[in-house]
Design brief:
The protein has about 550 residues and is of the alpha/beta class. It has helices at about 15-25, 40-50, 65-80, 100-110, 125-145, 160-170, 180-190, 215-235, 250-275, 280-295, 295-310, 315-320, 325-345, 360-370, 385-390, 405-415, 435-445, 480-485, 520-540; strands at about 5-10, 30-35, 55-60, 85, 115-120, 155-160, 195-200, 355-360, 375, 395-400, 420-425, 445-450, 465-470, 470-475, 490-500, 500-510.
Length: about 550
């Protein structure tokens, strides 16, 4: 272990000598990174370097921001052969006498990120205090844990090798967003966290470089992306609805997810019940803006769909205005709200939501008779809200998913609640095994959900062209052919969001029980698909921002 002290500075000419004097007794080399300070501060730093042989100053050519200065400092320290940097601010807020605590924590766990947990006195501004509490909550959600006591404190012990490796792979930002971003990303990478209490004071008249508008926007962006990262990578509860195209560190994500997916959901429910929806609104808009700006294919798919909606009279009435950039952003935001609602509901806060029923009496009637059914769903609204039916009305629901980890998903369901009656069935389009599982479920009087508005990836998948919202699109044939083979009742099942924390289940009978002769199955499947598409069109036009196939659906390859 070979630690050093590290201080980023920008124009704190009046405070820096006092900070250095308080550190002299510890006998550690100190690297000071001057982030383009004014001439007076540079003169103070040059004098300090001459007077204190243990101090080395690195002058950046221009001011780049706190994150830029720290990035320079970490690389500079690692190049000098140091293993850890004990980092302090230059404004005198941190208690230098706590440095031995950080040294001891590093000695006990050299791989850990050691974070200062501020112990404030009466000088702390209330706005800053409340902001820190919200930041803590966001980091807890993003890391699926309560490991981090405070993500913003600038007094910390940083493991340099792991940090510089992360900086080589990821842009953490150049300003105040750097500190919480570094904490989140190191935690994701499996770096353990230690928390050390330390006294922090706000000096009267002290110089602060925190921009209340710009830096809060930057940190909101960090938390939005981090929360989104947690949501899309957590296995099971989204059932593959969103998956990232690339993941440079899959083992780290899997390790994170294994540690606490179910715990994160419970945290989401607790956050919702404790603080309500309001604190999350900015985060959800941040997620929407991020996707709109950086995932252009999502925006193109949304605009293509909204243009099709606008082409119909009822769709124009629902939208109210021609679709443009703001409408696309609202569409993506609607999806982000749906993600949040799933987080809360899966976490157990069902009482926070109201679900209306439209046609549910049919499924209740089948359940009372001990008869199962095939439920054809869509990416309209949130089919996961069928869990509400499963739990509240003691229904057994199975969801067919297009990936091969159904066993893990089922273990996840068990970890959430022992009385949840929902299971996942892995579907391989080239195998009949799933068909046998589906038939066994229905024979037991259970319900099986298949989403029928998206063609599964891979060669040889059966698909057919059909008119949807006035233009030809491709739909999978498998669910409709399966309906004829099973001979069970078939219903269309959706759950659309009709307002804030309010959903409506929609169940429409498509056909009664009865086997179909082999030579008729193709034609009957086409007829069933036509019924399905007609209902889907009606609800897309009625709830246009609730259909979530964010790709170029018309004319797309299967």
């Amino acid at each position: 272990m070979n630690p050093c002290l590290l201080i980023p500075i920008y124009d704190h000419k009046d405070e820096i000598r006092g900070v250095l004097d308080g550190l002299a007794e510890f006998g550690l080399p100190c690297l000071v990174v001057d982030d383009g300070s004014d001439s007076e501060t540079r003169a103070v730093l040059d004098a300090a370097e001459k007077d204190c042989p243990w101090v080395e100053v690195y002058h950046r050519d221009r001011n780049g921001g706190r994150g830029a200065a720290l990035t320079t400092g970490y690389r500079f320290a690692l190049d000098r052969g140091f293993s850890h940097a004990i980092q302090l601010d230059a404004d005198g807020q941190h208690d230098a006498s706590d440095v031995p605590q950080f040294i001891e924590a590093i000695r006990e766990d050299p791989e850990a990120l050691v974070l200062g947990t501020p112990v404030f006195d009466e000088t702390v501004p209330k706005g800053r205090l409340y902001g820190r509490q919200l930041s803590r909550a966001m980091v807890w959600a993003a890391t699926l844990s309560f490991d981090v006591s405070d993500p913003l404190c600038g007094f910390r012990g940083v493991p340099l090798a792991a940090t510089v490796e992360l900086l080589d792979e990821t842009d953490l930002g150049d300003h105040m967003e750097f500190d919480p971003n570094l904490v989140i990303r190191l935690h994701w990478a499996g770096v353990p966290v230690r928390n050390v209490p330390t006294r922090v004071v706000y000096n009267e008249g002290g110089l602060s470089h925190f921009d209340m508008v710009a830096d809060n926007v930057r940190m909101s962006g960090v938390y939005s992306r981090a929360l989104l990262g947690m949501l899309v990578r957590s296995p099971g509860w989204l059932l593959g609805k969103i998956r990232p195209q690339t993941d440079p560190r899959p083992t780290d994500w899997m390790r994170m997810a294994e540690r606490g997916t179910a715990g994160a959901l419970r945290f989401g429910a607790w956050f919702h019940e404790t603080f309500g929806r309001r604190p999350m609104q900015g985060m959800l808009w941040g997620i929407a803006i991020y996707f709109y700006l950086f995932h252009r294919a999502v925006g193109r798919g949304s605009r293509q769909y909204l243009d099709r909606i606008w082409a119909s009279p009822s769709g124009r009435e629902s939208l109210g205005r021609p679709p443009g950039r703001l409408m696309v952003l609202r569409h993506i935001h609607s999806f982000a709200v749906g993600i949040y609602d799933r987080l809360v509901v899966w976490g157990g806060a069902l009482d926070s939501y109201h679900v209306d029923h439209d046609g549910s009496e049919k499924i209740f009637e089948l359940a009372e008779q001990g008869r199962g059914a095939l439920l054809l769903g869509a990416h309209l609204g949130s089919y996961e809200m069928l869990w509400f039916l499963s739990r509240e009305y003691d229904l057994a629901v199975n969801v067919v998913v297009y990936y091969q980890n159904a066993e893990r998903v089922n273990q996840f369901f068990d970890s959430i609640s022992p009385d949840v009656h929902i299971r996942a069935i892995s579907l391989d389009p080239h195998s009949v095994n799933a068909a046998f599982q589906i038939k066994a479920c229905i024979d037991r009087g259970e319900f099986v959900v298949i989403l029928a508005d998206r063609v599964a990836p891979g060669p040889g998948v059966r698909a057919a062209d059909a008119s949807f919202l006035g233009k030809t699109a491709r739909f999978p044939m498998g669910p409709f052919l399966l309906a004829g083979t099973l001979g069970c009742p078939v219903l269309m099942a959706m759950c659309v969001r009709t307002g804030t924390a309010r959903y409506q289940t929609v169940l429409r009978p498509l056909r009664d029980a009865g086997r179909i002769r082999r030579d008729e199955r193709e034609n009957r499947a086409q007829e069933l698909m036509g019924q399905y598409i007609s209902i889907l069109e009606t609800y897309c036009e009625q709830y246009p921002l609730e259909w979530f196939n964010f790709f170029e659906f018309w004319g797309a390859e299967p």
